[in-house]
Design goal:
With about 300 residues, this protein is an alpha+beta fold. The protein is about 35% helix and about 25% strand. The protein contains ten helices and ten strands.
Length: about 300
């Protein structure tokens, strides 16, 4: 089967060194290629929320200098309406939601996965990578660049990279890149991570999360958008929790994975809908998997 012209062009760029401890075939991914592939992924997000499916009420905008005030400046919830019947029944949303209750948010408490929960991880990865055009294009790009030799190898590495457990507190296997980024954790009496809009909405709906304010609203007219938010999660405060709003699970997962693979632990500069946007990733360096590969510590959209 012939590769798409875009993939052929990526192959022709050539092989160089990529400063990533997770890549066996050493290649380079340029800033321009990152902008090109991110625009493609943005354009392919057919499962994103449409204005009729999602209504938010950001309310109070505060300066960066006031994000640590811990004051509820918004009397209403952030999410006014979410069309759950339409959005959350889609395969990738349903697969994501299945994962969100598999974790204890307190660091220092070990995580234990049942066979069913491991199967939920595998189902999520297959749905977002092999089952969506976003995932297939990300796979095509990384295979064309020589980062992986097959889609199966990519999925296997993503499972360890995102879901592999490591210790943030007391030597317990209490954390993972997925839990930190998509679910959120409590460490040192405050919210750590938590960069996913679906998790935010579900907790707010249950009365477990209180939205306070925002210090950043992205330049997009529709979805996905980006907010930098202040909130209280059952007694624990988040000073700035930035997240894509209205994006599909496959979009978030693909963009974060792309940036972690291409620019691990660094600022990753993308282009989304013609707008510049950066993603910050962090590597977990205290423990490893495989042949010295590094787990994801965090990934989130930068809110200036």
């Amino acid at each position: 089967m012939k590769l798409p012209l875009l993939s052929v062009l990526w192959v022709l760029v050539g092989l160089h060194w990529l400063q990533s401890g997770n890549v066996s075939a050493q290649v380079s991914i340029t800033n321009e290629e990152l902008k090109e592939i991110s625009e493609l992924l943005f354009s392919l997000d057919k499962n994103k929320a449409r204005p009729s499916e999602l209504i938010i009420n950001p309310q109070r905008l505060i300066p960066n200098s006031e994000t640590n005030q811990k004051v509820d400046l918004s009397t209403e919830p952030l999410y006014t309406f979410v069309d759950e019947a339409n959005l959350f029944t889609r395969p990738t949303y349903a697969a994501l939601i299945n994962l969100l209750d598999n974790y204890n948010r307190m660091t220092g408490t070990a995580e234990h996965f049942t066979k069913e929960q491991v199967a939920e991880q595998e189902a999520f990865l297959k749905k977002v990578v092999a089952g969506t055009e976003i995932g297939r294009q990300l796979s095509t790009f990384l295979l064309a660049k020589g980062v992986y030799t097959s889609e199966a190898e990519l999925i296997q590495d993503l499972q360890m990279m995102w879901f592999g457990l490591y210790s943030r507190n007391k030597g317990q296997l209490d954390s993972s890149g997925f839990e930190h980024t998509f679910v959120g954790e409590i460490k040192s009496s405050k919210v750590s991570g938590f960069h996913n809009w679906v998790q935010f909405y579900l907790l707010e709906k249950r009365g477990q999360l209180n939205y306070y304010s925002h210090n950043f609203d992205g330049p997009w007219a529709g979805f996905p958008d980006i907010l930098g938010m202040q909130f209280n999660w059952n007694g624990f405060f988040k000073e700035v929790g930035s997240a894509f709003i209205g994006s599909s699970p496959e979009f978030d997962f693909a963009v974060y994975s792309l940036c972690y693979i291409a620019r691990p632990g660094k600022m990753c500069h993308l282009s989304l809908g013609g707008k510049a946007q950066s993603i910050q990733t962090y590597t977990w360096t205290n423990s490893f998997y495989g042949d010295g590969k590094k787990f994801i510590a965090s990934a989130y959209p930068v809110s200036p």
